[in-house]
């Protein structure tokens, strides 16, 4: 199991990593880490909503929680209890994350540009505050 506080720390660290990669003009990798930052924050929020101190980490720990063993941000958002607010108030922000998935690691080099990367970073900064 992974503690909620650690999930939050990891989310913030992935955002810092994404900023550093953006500054190094590594836009693809920056955007990839943006998605992971949101995924970690969503998992922390799910724990807070369910009054859990920890989130399942290993396959065996997910035995009764298969629905949570996903990287799909829309699915995770559904379990947070704040999806209505995010969809209503932050739809323009969420749109930058709705298509993210771990498969982004396979995108060709230079798939992203600086402008798109900056927009995603801005969106993630807002969403991490909300989540």
Description:
This protein is globular. The model has no long low-confidence stretch (mean pLDDT 89). The chain has six helices and two strands, in the order E-H-H-E-H-H-H-H. The protein has helices at 4-23, 27-50, 73-78, 83-89, 91-94, 114-130, and strands spanning 2-3, 54-55. Helix 1 runs antiparallel to helix 2 and helix 1 packs antiparallel against helix 6 (114-130). With 131 residues, it is mostly helical. Strands 1-2 form a two-stranded antiparallel sheet.
Bin the strand percentage. under 5%
Question: Which structural category do the helix and sheet elements fall into?
Answer: mainly alpha
> Uncertain regions: pLDDT < 50 for 5+ in a row?
none
Residues in helix, %: 55-70%
Please report the number of helical segments. 6
Strand order of the largest sheet: 1-2
Secondary structure blueprint with pairings:
Layout: E1 2-3, H1 4-23, H2 27-50, E2 54-55, H3 73-78, H4 83-89, H5 91-94, H6 114-130
Antiparallel strand pairs: 1-2
Helix pairs in contact: 1-2, 1-6, 2-6
Summarize this structure as a short list of keywords or feature phrases:
131 residues; mainly alpha; two-stranded antiparallel ribbon; 60% helix; globular
Short summary:
Helices cover 60% and strands 3% of the residues.
């Amino acid at each position: 199991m992974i503690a909620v506080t650690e999930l939050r720390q990891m989310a913030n660290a992935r955002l810092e990593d994404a900023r550093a990669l953006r500054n190094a003009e590594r836009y693809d990798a920056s955007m990839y880490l943006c998605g992971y930052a949101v995924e970690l924050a969503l998992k922390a929020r799910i724990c807070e909503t369910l009054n859990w101190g920890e989130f399942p980490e290993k396959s065996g720990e997910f035995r009764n929680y298969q629905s949570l063993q996903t990287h799909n941000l829309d699915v995770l958002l559904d379990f947070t209890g704040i999806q209505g607010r995010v969809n209503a108030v932050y739809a323009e922000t969420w749109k930058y994350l709705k298509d993210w998935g771990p498969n982004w690691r396979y995108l060709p080099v230079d798939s992203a540009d600086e402008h798109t990367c900056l927009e995603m970073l801005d969106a993630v900064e807002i969403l991490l505050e909300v989540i």
